[in-house]
Design brief:
Layout: E1 4-9, E2 21-23, H1 25-29, H2 44-50, E3 53-55, H3 64-80, H4 83-90, E4 95-100, E5 107-112, E6 120-125, H5 133-146, H6 160-177, H7 182-197, H8 201-231, H9 247-260, H10 266-278, H11 287-294
Parallel strand pairs: 3-4, 4-6
Antiparallel strand pairs: 1-2, 1-5, 5-6
The protein binds zinc ion.
Length: about 300
């Protein structure tokens, strides 16, 4: 097993940033014993399970005032981006929503994207300091004002992290969908071939990261092109510091801005146009504005 994950850092101290890459060995070992939760979350647990998204019992300790909005957020994102759950059924895979020990105190959560389309997990830091709504809201406000995290509405502070991680998952879904194209298939075969030749876990991690970053770069460039076409030259300062660490984080941050703000930035809006081209998006909210700009 093993692999790498993108973690969402809490910037107590940016000098200790690991730029979103962490080693996941310890955390993933306990994944198999993590049973589905018995909490119902107003029926959402079952609804999500039918869509192959499993809320695990390790999340039971997260206070409901935080976790219930997160569960609702995941549900609403799966209804907006329907391919995110269709693809799970098609590939007979599950996405687990879990809580676990983090390799550093700086990570709030991470998404594990496996070496193939497997072992999909969104994992929250089980440290209780990340499980207090007041603390989360205060910290989010500070980080957003400092420009470390991307802009989002106050009432969505509690959902910022889960939306960011879901953004990484959406990137993974787009990569998986790309296997239906000839180019995508060639890229994938080369990647699997490189993986098979790797002699140790560090090498494997680098190959996985490279494959994922290549896609993120391609996607980010498309978003920039869309931006120039519809909104003019983009201002990179609209991206958070965290989003500037690499293109995977840029993608996740723009996804967060788009889905946690009533008024996303133009880069957030360009991201929605990009997504609507690449996958099914129910009622893309910027569509009206986009059509207006087209005229
Ligand atoms: Zn991230």
């Amino acid at each position: 097993m093993g692999g790498r994950g993108s973690c969402y850092l809490n910037f107590y101290d940016i000098s200790k940033s690991t730029s979103g890459d962490i080693d996941l060995f310890d955390i993933l070992e306990s994944a198999e014993e993590d049973k589905d939760t018995e909490k119902e979350y107003n029926g959402k647990t079952e609804k999500l399970k039918q869509k192959n998204i499993h809320i695990k019992e390790s999340t039971d300790k997260i206070p409901e005032e935080i976790f219930l909005p997160n569960v609702y957020k995941i549900d609403s994102l799966t209804r907006k981006y329907t391919d995110t759950t269709k693809i799970l059924g098609k590939n007979e895979k599950e996405l687990a929503i879990r809580s676990g020990k983090m390799p550093s105190n700086y990570a709030a959560a991470f998404f594990h994207d496996g070496t193939k389309f497997d072992n999909l997990q969104i994992v929250f830091n089980k440290d209780l300091t990340f499980s207090n709504k007041d603390i989360i809201e205060k910290r989010s406000e500070i980080l957003i004002n400092k420009g470390e995290w991307i802009k989002c509405d106050k009432e969505e502070y509690v959902n910022q992290t889960v939306t960011h991680e879901f953004g990484h998952y959406v990137q993974k879904v787009l990569m998986q969908k790309d296997l239906n194209t000839k180019q995508g298939r060639i890229r994938y075969d080369k990647y699997i071939d490189e993986l098979s030749k790797a002699t140790n876990i560090k090498e494997r991690q680098l190959i996985v990261k490279k494959y994922s970053e290549e896609y993120a770069t391609k996607f980010f460039k498309s978003i920039q092109r869309i931006h120039r076409k519809h909104f003019g030259k983009e201002n990179i300062n609209n991206l958070s510091e965290y989003g500037k660490t690499n293109n995977r984080e840029a993608f996740a941050e723009l996804f967060t801005n788009l889905n946690c703000s009533k008024e996303p930035s133009t880069l957030g809006k360009a991201t929605e146009i990009f997504l609507a081209k690449k996958m099914s998006v129910k009622n893309p909210r910027i569509k009206k504005e986009f059509d207006k700009n087209k005229k």
